[in-house]
Automatic annotation (TrEMBL):
The gene is trmB. This is tRNA (guanine-N(7)-)-methyltransferase. Substrate binds at residues 109, 141. Belongs to the class I-like SAM-binding methyltransferase superfamily. TrmB family. InterPro entries: SAM-dependent_MTases_sf (IPR029063), tRNA_(Gua-N-7)_MeTrfase_Trmb (IPR003358), tRNA_methyltr_TrmB_bact (IPR055361). Pathway: tRNA modification; N(7)-methylguanine-tRNA biosynthesis. It catalyses: guanosine(46) in tRNA + S-adenosyl-L-methionine = N(7)-methylguanosine(46) in tRNA + S-adenosyl-L-homocysteine. Its EC number is 2.1.1.33. Catalyzes the formation of N(7)-methylguanine at position 46 (m7G46) in tRNA. It is an enzyme of class 2 (transferase). Keywords: Methyltransferase, S-adenosyl-L-methionine, Transferase, tRNA processing. PROSITE patterns: SAM_MT_TRMB.
Length: 326
């Protein structure tokens, strides 16, 4: 089953995600590629553990979904997100039994080390989301990254590092086979938490059922209001604060309801969202600026700021704001 971010709760629970198998162990695989690991590994269990797979590549997601379906693994959820976002916002404290990382991208250039997944903050986050007795399992052919990850785990102060043989299924992935053909031998480490730090979830919520709780503003626009002079393009603008950047990219006229729709790009750490903010006339002549449900946006400080950015933009064009609900 593929879950977009908007299908999750923040944080979520095994009992909601796997209602029929909630008592089974829960495994997260980060960067599952074309999805070969889990069908191989799950076959080692009489009852396959609950599986959560996270990937950045949409093509990989579809390939993996086909494999899981063919293997009859119906207690498996795949999602296309940065691993950090899933682990921080969706996985509950002490929720997971295993986090598996097979052949992570090594980012070998000196200037790119910040892109590596397995750095000390990752290990603190992982320790907070693992159960007592849980572990992170790393298999990689990249010796330098392997040493880097082991050192990062030690530096986190919350993990012990044990070297071991990889699980056989980790030697059957696409990258395992690729490196085996080149004569490279993988290394394997098991990182076990010695403490479970309280790494908090962020200020992130599903799109509210109640329209009154959707980020919005009400304003009166001047009778002469036009969004731009004829022939003038919408001028892109950027707003930044603490943890977010909002770029208002464009504005479209709505032919159905009258009014406009603004397109905003919102960046908060690893999380990016494209959201639509509607500007529609109300019966009393005022206008409602409101986050649209389209695309399944998640309510975050940055998304609220996108509604604020559209409101500010209208205010600069003569709008009188009477209510801010964001
Ligand atoms: C080298 S491939 C390995 C794929 C697979 N594990 C295998 O062994 O064949 C690394 C994978 O990690 C994914 N990836 C990289 N960074 C990620 C992140 N932050 N969150 C989730 N997936 C990520 C990439 O899209 C890529 O598919």
């Amino acid at each position: 089953m593929i879950f977009p971010l908007g299908d999750f709760h923040f944080p979520d629970a095994a009992s909601r995600l796997y209602p029929h198998t909630a008592q089974r162990p829960w495994v997260l695989e980060i960067g599952f590629g074309d999805g070969r690991f889990w069908p191989h590994h799950a076959a080692d269990f009489a009852e396959p553990p609950n599986y959560l797979g996270v990937e950045l590549s949409g093509v990989s997601l579809l390939k993996a979904q086909r494999r899981l379906k063919a293997a009859g693994l119906d207690n498996a959820i795949l999602t296309k997100l940065p691993a950090d976002v899933l682990l921080r916002e969706v996985v509950p404290h002490g929720g997971l039994d295993r986090i598996v990382v097979n052949f992570p991208d090594p980012w070998p250039k000196a200037g790119h080390l910040d892109h590596r997944l397995l750095r000390a903050p990752f290990f603190s986050l992982a320790a907070s989301r693992l159960k007592a007795g849980g572990a992170v399992l790393l298999t990689t052919d990249h010796d330098e990254y392997f040493e880097f990850a082991c050192q990062a785990a030690r530096d986190s102060g919350v993990m012990t590092v044990d070297l071991a043989d990889p699980p056989p299924a980790a030697l059957e992935t696409k990258y395992a086979l690729k490196w085996r053909d080149l004569g490279l031998a993988p290394q394997h480490a098991r990182f076990t938490p010695t403490a479970h730090p309280d790494v908090p979830h962020g200020d992130i919520h599903p799109y509210p059922e109640d329209p009154a709780h959707v980020p919005h503003a009400i304003l009166s626009l001047p009778a002469t209001f036009t969004p731009a002079a004829p022939g003038q393009p919408f001028e892109k603008r950027t707003a930044r604060a603490g943890g977010w950047t909002v770029i208002l990219l464009d504005l479209y006229a709505s032919l159905r309801v009258g009014g406009w729709v603004a397109l905003a790009h919102v960046v908060e750490g690893e999380l990016t969202q494209e959201v639509l903010v509607g500007i529609t006339a109300r019966e009393d002549g005022s206008h409602l600026v409101r986050l649209a449900k389209f695309g399944g946006p998640i309510i975050t400080p940055g998304v609220k700021a996108a509604v604020g950015a559209v409101t500010d933009w209208l205010e600069e064009r003569g709008g009188q704001v009477t209510h801010r609900g964001y």
